[in-house]
Amino acid sequence: MHTDLIINGQQIQGQALSFAVINPANESVIAEVASASAGQVNDAVRTALQAFKAWKNVSDDAVKQAFAKIAADIRAEKDEIAQLITLEQGKTIGMAQFEVDAGASWIDYLSGLDIPVETIQEPKGKTIKVYNRPLGVVASVTPWNWPFMIAVWHIFPALKTKNCVINKPSEYTPLSTIKLVEIINRHVPAGVCSIVLGKGEIGQALTEHADVAKVTFTGSTRTGQSILSHSVSSLKSVVLELGGNDAGIVLADADVERTAQGIFASAFLNAGQTCAALKRLYVHESVYEALTEKLVQIANAQVIGDGANPEVTFGPVQNKMQYDKVNALIADAVARGGQVLTASKALPDHGYFIAPALIANVQEGIALVDEEQFGPVLPIIKFNAVDEVLERSNNTQFGLGGSIWSTDLAKAEQIASQMETGTVWINSHSDLSPAAPFGGWKLSGLGYSFGLEGLLLFTHKQAVHISG
Ligand code: NAD
């Protein structure tokens, strides 16, 4: 297991204080990781700038070949990477394997994209060519819920567009990202992709560095706002993928069986620790009883435990802070009249385990409904009029995603047009595509990732006017 920084292609021990990485399934220390010093962050940026001089002119074919080799190595080392993800993050081994597979497929997809050059024909024989040029050094800061996948989402668009990139993973889950950057460094020149380790202050030192041209950040709204405020003096390009409080709206004509399966899979994906998970459920009164009954059955059937055990279907919450927060939200909801529909279960003595909880008899105005829980608990709210529920679902500072569950697709699309969110799903929730732009409205984000639009945010436009 690697625990070092990788700067300029070299594995180097951090020079500042170390921090412990904890296995959330049993609270044991997996690794002590030495944090980077401010000087080492500076070294990473300096050597990335140096590497950029050659990498910005690398051929498209060479990038494709490097991506193919990296994806092949990831697939060959899938078991080791998946075990690291489960060990540090807590998710089930099956879900960790999915994370690795999805990362490799994402790289394949990006590899196949072409960076367009637009040609504008002007009168009198003048031609203008509009190129998408690389920016320079990209800083990537990632969270602890999908550590490997989100690092892929940040690093590969940067490399594809011929930028150099430095990642700072979450201090809770650095190990699988170190492994990823180690693999990348087998196939790209020194300095093109580095990793620095540490807590928030290292993220801040990296993202506010004057020689960083762009920041791509996934995490909390509070940290995103701080990064944006620190990017003003150097006018950095900043893309922020932040928190959400996605509503799911189940209409009277929904297919109850399919809807229950889909809602559980989204709301409790990764024990609910997914930015675009379904976080507030509004159910039409005519299907409320049938749907909640089915959801409770699915929740009660989960096998809770250490995700490394292949029989387990539901792992722990990733860290103590989140464990305390989610338990406090449940206790507050219950104190205000919320009714826990799911059975209470005996949980392991150690580890941050919370059984999936469905909570009825709640409304807006309590924290569980108004705030992002980011954990395994879902408030369920009955409604009877679509107009009214649309207003309630939009009445939030967040705007990441939302979903409509109905067998009438035309009606669902009409309702989708009224939702104030960057993504709307119909009869699913949380599934993302590398081909479609993804970004939050309101306090859920700035800019977008994925698709050609997201990729081109890693570039500057350059218009070359050619007169004969
Ligand atoms: P966080 O903001 O606390 O931490 C994210 C990362 O930022 C970590 O690497 C952390 O060390 C770093 N960091 C902390 N302070 C910093 C600073 N001042 N400057 C620079 N970097 C700093 O978020 P988290 O708790 O790790 O993640 C959970 C949050 O992320 C949730 O709100 C969730 O909704 C959100 N999230 C959003 C998406 C999305 O795509 N929209 C995806 C996953 C998670």
TrEMBL record:
Q: Please give the Gene Ontology molecular function terms for this protein.
A: oxidoreductase activity, acting on the aldehyde or oxo group of donors, NAD or NADP as acceptor
Domain (Aldehyde dehydrogenase) ranges: 17-463
Q: Keywords, A to Z?
A: Oxidoreductase
Q: Catalytic residues per the record?
A: E241
> Any signal peptide, and if so, which residues?
none
Q: What InterPro entries is this protein classified in?
A: Ald_DH/histidinol_DH, Ald_DH_C, Ald_DH_CS_CYS, Ald_DH_CS_GLU, Ald_DH_N, Aldehyde_DH_dom, LUC3-like
Q: Which domain of life is it from?
A: Bacteria
Give the family, as the similarity comment puts it.
Answer: Belongs to the aldehyde dehydrogenase family.
Under which name does UniProt file this protein? Answer: Aldehyde dehydrogenase domain-containing protein
Lineage, top ranks: Bacteria, Pseudomonadati, Pseudomonadota, Gammaproteobacteria, Moraxellales
